[in-house]
What we know:
Layout: H1 72-97, H2 100-124, H3 130-156, H4 164-178, H5 183-195, H6 216-222, H7 227-238, H8 244-267, H9 274-285, H10 289-298, H11 314-321, E1 323-324, H12 329-334, H13 343-348, H14 354-370, E2 376-377, H15 380-389, H16 391-396
Parallel strand pairs: 1-2
Helix pairs in contact: 1-14, 2-3, 3-4, 3-9, 4-8, 8-9
Protein name: FADS6 desaturase
InterPro entries: FA_desaturase_dom (IPR005804), Fatty_acid_desaturase (IPR012171)
Keywords: Fatty acid biosynthesis, Fatty acid metabolism, Lipid biosynthesis, Lipid metabolism, Membrane, Transmembrane, Transmembrane helix
Amino acid sequence: MPLEDGDPVRWRGQQVNGEVSGTPHSRGMGDPSPRGTPAPNGSRTEKIAEGWELGPALGDRDVTPGEKPQPAGQEMGQREEALMTELSELVQKVVKSSSWWERHGVDISILACSFLLLPAGFLCLRSAQAIPFLAGVLTLGVVHHTLTVKGSHLASHNALTESKSWGKVWAIFFIELCSAFTAEQATYNHVKIHHGYTNIIGLGDSSTWKLPFLNRYVYMFIAPLAVPILTPLVALDLLRNVEWKAALRTLCCMFLGLYCHYWLLLHLSGFQSPWSALLCMLLTRSLLAHPYIHVNIFQHIGLPMFAADRKPKRIHLMSLGVLNLPRNALLDWSFGHSLISCHVEHHLFPSLSDNMCLKIKPIVSQYLKQKKLPYNEDTYASRLRLFLHRYEELMVHAPPITELVGIQ
């Protein structure tokens, strides 16, 4: 399986503030951050050393008589590329030694189990008793998010299969039929933009998750309930950007997925009115919408942001701008390891499945820490307190551009 390592923007040699974790400091755009600021709210993210150990400092290398010295930026770029190459080789060895079951089978089995749970969930909703009914809501809610979040995410990266043709089929199934979104736009916005320009202002800076006109409590606790309604509406708007054949296919898949859910609630679960069935659809589809929104902002916003023409190479960009949350049984199952506890690993090697991201996690974390690169980790509760406390700075105002300090 190929490991992605593209970096379309050149390095221009900048400086990094002495702290990765927490939030951007209140300062002018492009002004250097104060060093040594403690991480807010007890964040346990790794600090950036003022002098990263990337080999000898520039200018210390002996130059052979007659040899033309390399420009400082070019030499630094080569060292950074060498780091990513070395890490990729370590990960590639693990991937090649892993079985198909480890590379794809585990995650496919989770998705298959979710499908098998669907009949039980719909049948539980037939009960007039509270406990079986709530069990049905919980089952359908978890299954829905497993298929739409985990399934769609893996399909968008073609991480479910080695075949590109089957990868396209799974992307249409999980993204359009299950999630009521458009596969082309979802793949482009997530894979090409978010992964290609992680934490780059105006491109992959997660700004699509910001609604600055909402106050912190409405955004964090009430607005997520509208995700099942907003998702197809946004998809319909994005269909203007795709070919008419793809738009027609998307419309058909979206309608089929939503109608099948509605029909099963009426005929299998026994709902008597259309409104009660629609309300149940909204309830199950928004069951895990809160952690879905939270995870999308917790793991990038508040970390260093960069300008498109002044950003570090891939290994530094991903180690600086991505954060891992602790393992959680419910979210690991529904969202996948690559979105929760292995998000750093996923951004470094996005074509790997959730299970493989979990398998390479010790290698990646050890390598980054050995090279004195940041490996950001924090708890869900800590990030929630942080965003509630500094919501205006993080989610309303434009994030400041980080200046890299300490890369000598």
